[in-house]
Write a structure and sequence with these properties.
homodimer, alpha/beta, 5-stranded mixed sheet, 14 helices, 15 strands, 41% helix, 20% strand, disordered C terminus, DNA-binding
DNA sequence: TAAGGTTAATTTGTTTATCAAACTAACTAA
DNA sequence: TTAGTTAGTTTGATAAACAAATTAACCTTA
């Protein structure tokens, strides 16, 4: 075992700190870095020159003088490489090609008809290949791939169960790494969404946040101290099946009164069913009616919002997060849910807790999961830049 | 700012790792340490000699040879110093004097009549002084003090609110540090209990656990990756006020259907009231009847157990912990609650999660909080052994 | 416009913690 | 007795951070 540290560890840590400082506060000079992180000027110079050599950082010329020699400003080289993020959704999959800063370079939505693992995998492979074609020139090419899956993913990247796809024990990692290298990350869709919003969206300034993915069911990603909380064997965050009404409606999990029977997109659609005569309404139908001021629909949305608040209050009382971000499909109805939701949350959470917690809707909209998934290989790559260069880099 | 590392940091980290290895696996030799943690033999020797010099470690002579020179076995010097832990309970306070391994050296229970902060503080001070008198000789004396409080404690050690004591904004830290030095730790009673069970009790082998303190209300301490999860401003874990029955009984917090209205000691006492004609029963009365096979009482306990299971299932689904430890008063009724509790938990938690989570009752019984509180200054002291030597050490 | 002051970045030499290798010490087994 | 094994220390090399000195490039102002 090797759990202790030596000088190389220190250097790696300091180099990472320097790189992250540049990423977050760019543009800035070597002298700035030294004063911000407290590292000696000489050491900063040395580490920066290594970062420049590996093309992760570049100089963009002199900045404003503050009375003496002009500083040489540094920039994170966002085009040093790219990453691909895939969100497997219920009817389609969304794939994005992003640069190292998470900016979307190219995007693709592919409808899914056949949910069998083999077919979906084929679609994923094809889509990834498509995104990798005609890449802008870059030193590292595509550094890795992240996939968000609507189901349980264990610590060995195995998809244990994905009810909405009808999957059990599917090994996406094995299948993809054979073609695309080792920097492949498979994670739960809500976990990926949480990371996406934390890095690029509503949670940028929060260390503790809960991302709620509300679609057919309710899933969540819990971020504690900046890192994802994973629980035993990676199965945390199944908040949709928390009991909020002991003798409530029957849930597909076999229980009664699960939160998602009362506050998910499915709950909304089920209850809206009686208001439509000719066909089962879609979320879009409902929103259209709401926009036109349909009283009954507005009341229904208010009721769902209130039920949302009940579960939120539980989460606030239990975990006292800085921020709750609501994402996925139901966030489209945010405007009609917000008021009732916040009101119930206010009533049902403890006063000291309520004051501290903010509730927001996803800033990345429908892309939270895909962007979060893409960030996984980027983070891994930047922590250890030698590890993972895909074929894209080798065949430019 | 100084967030980067240098050689001193490395040395401190490695020294801590060496010390913790000795604490956990003693007795063992320098060579053992080297092979366990991967540090070079020479480095281990150097660090160990410093630890011996500071009297935190001692040699206890040669061990069995395995074919060559006999190893010199090392032991953590559990009597290098002592710590005091105090648990402020509803009717009394429990104070313990422990050695550096958490062994109880002396113990004191003091009844509380007047709950005003001043009076309680006086009692605490008097009790601490009593425990510090006639200490066994030791190099460091009492290294610090930890206090567990039944209420919200913020990150600056301020007691924001303790409803059962009628406290608001009480500064225990200031008052105690004036007399006893700076290594004073104030924390929520359930947080301290969680740490106690983690270090010395049922949670020794678990990295993620939830400690439930079930007395008048239900509090919890959540340990994630070996560390306490604190939430924003240190207010996490108020699980007692999670809604499990939307239109259930009114709670003292103003809500309906909070878990603690259905599954706490108070819920049990309230509901048992109708079974006793002459007086309001105590938990002890109830347990006596249960022991004698009183059907109605047994049914009531079963019902409480089942309600316990509902909330447990929520926690399992949300946090998927390795272990849930139930402590404080209601754990005394563990034998009568267990079956119904586990059965409901089984029914209401998701199958993949249930398999992984164990539920246990506190191994330290009523002492979880006091021992956990005492561990706080010990941990702080061992992380930085120069910091905190109380007057006890100066006036031996 | 030359001198003095200021800020940026690099160079030089010192410190210090780890490590590998060689060594001493102390034992076992045949 | 001797060869082999394990424990622990000593010695010298290495590498990373640091302080101080130095070079570089600017600004201000008399």
């Amino acid at each position: 075992m090797k759990i202790t540290g030596d000088q190389q560890l220190i250097k790696k840590m300091n180099k990472t700190i320097v790189l992250n400082t540049i990423r977050q506060q760019q543009p800035l000079s070597r002298a700035d870095i030294s004063s911000v992180i407290g590292l000696n000027k000489a050491t900063v110079s040395s580490l920066v020159s290594e970062l420049i050599e590996s093309q992760l950082v570049s100089e963009i010329g002199p900045g404003e003088s503050s009375g003496g020699r002009k500083p040489t400003l540094l920039l994170f080289n966002r085009s040093a490489g790219f990453a691909i993020g895939v969100d497997i959704r219920v009817n389609d999959l969304l794939a994005v090609l992003v640069d190292m800063e998470g900016n979307v370079i190219r995007e693709k939505t592919v409808p899914l008809e056949d949910y069998s693992p083999g077919k979906v995998l084929d679609q994923i492979r094809k889509t990834i290949r498509g995104l990798m074609r005609r890449l802008p020139a870059s030193p590292y090419g595509v550094v890795g791939i992240g996939i968000g899956v609507p189901g349980l993913v264990d610590e060995k990247s195995q998809v244990i169960s994905a009810p909405n796809l009808g999957w059990d024990n599917v090994d996406l990692y094995e299948a993809l790494s054979a073609e695309f290298g080792s920097n492949i990350h498979i994670d739960n869709e809500a976990n990926a969404g949480a990371i996406g919003e934390k890095l690029y969206g509503a949670g940028r300034d929060s260390k503790d946040l809960i991302y709620l993915s509300i679609g057919i069911g309710i899933g969540s990603g819990i971020i504690v101290g900046g890192d994802l909380y994973r629980g035993t064997s990676n199965f945390s965050g199944e908040v949709g099946h928390m009991t909020v009404a002991e003798n409530g409606p029957l849930c597909r999990c076999g229980n009664r009164g699960c939160w998602e029977t009362l506050a998910s997109e499915k709950a909304l659609l089920d209850q809206a069913g009686t208001l439509w005569k000719d066909h089962a309404p879609s979320l879009e139908d409902i929103l259209k009616e709401a926009k036109q001021g349909n009283e009954k629909v507005l009341n229904l949305l208010e009721q769902i919002g209130s039920q949302l608040g009940v579960g939120l209050a539980n989460l606030v009382n239990i975990l006292n997060p800085e921020l709750i971000v609501i994402g996925n499909r139901l966030s489209l109805a945010g405007d009609y849910l917000r008021q009732a939701m916040l009101s119930t949350l206010g009533k049902r959470s403890l006063s000291y807790h309520r004051k501290q917690t903010h509730v927001d809707f996803a800033k990345l909209g429908i892309r939270s999961t895909a962007l979060g998934a893409a960030s996984l290989p980027i983070t891994a790559f930047l922590a250890d830049p030698d590890v993972s260069i895909t074929e894209a880099a080798l065949n430019p």
